[in-house]
Amino acid sequence: MKKIAIRAHSVSVSAGKHLILDGVSLDLHAGCWTSIVGPNGAGKSTLLRALAGLVPHAGRVDLPGLPAHATTARDRARHLAWLGQSEGSPDDLSVYDVALLGRLPHRAWLAPPGPADHAAAEQALRATGAWDWRARPIGQLSGGERQRALLARALAVQADVLLMDEPLANLDPPHQADWLATVRALVGQGRTVVSVLHEISIALQADAMVVMAGGRVLHQGACADAATHRALENVFDHRVAVRQFDGQWLALPKPPSNDVRKTAYQVGTA
Ligand SMILES: Nc1ncnc2c1ncn2[C@@H]1O[C@H](COP(=O)(O)OP(=O)(O)OP(=O)(O)O)[C@@H](O)[C@H]1O
What we know:
34% of the residues lie in helices and 27% in strands. It is of the alpha/beta class and 270 residues long. The mean pLDDT is 91. Bound molecules: adenosine-5'-triphosphate.
């Protein structure tokens, strides 16, 4: 039987009277890459933040891979790394120092980074192609360069579980492919990756997929399963078609029907 990396029991998140996440229960397998997909506002980021313990919620999130003696926030930060959307870092911090931030859970209070920390930062920066400009201040970087520096910070943690919210934001296709290779390597080492993705064709390359809408999980299954493809097409109102090309599943955008197109045009030109 597959090990569980994260188990959510009836997790709900509210903002005032608005229920953003509505009693989500799910098991995420260890040593697997799971992608979370769904339309805008489905609750994907909120679910990921709840799994990471970054948002107050009802219900429970368990990390069965965390040893029983590992009870502190620092233990948890070593076990579970996080890459959020539009994360901030002081603009004058160098790319190298940003990567080293990922080592904070491994360092004693106020202790300088040691050889293992420098080695982890270098490995992470090389994996994201950011090593050559490690001395540059993060505030001077383009959107994609910045994302690669932040990704390096998450990788430098060397955590068993990585949660990433839109990790491909601003990345060009070669660096998207590098990210895919990195995820495959992590999973090959037995690590668990959970990513919220809008790039559905890339999300379909994961091992498993969680399909969300309206703050709920509508479907969870293998990316190769026909039931998962149907759930994807349904949740996007059949505006995507899942097809196989060259041995790979792709989600192709479909144009609106003539009726919808006509209405949209009339609204747009009114
Ligand atoms: N602090 C908040 N207060 C009120 N509503 C919120 C708050 N945070 C999120 N929401 C709402 O909760 C819903 C889910 O938000 P969330 O960011 O989790 O969606 P998402 O699926 O990640 O969306 P997207 O694909 O657009 O990034 C949205 O309708 C959002 O407007």
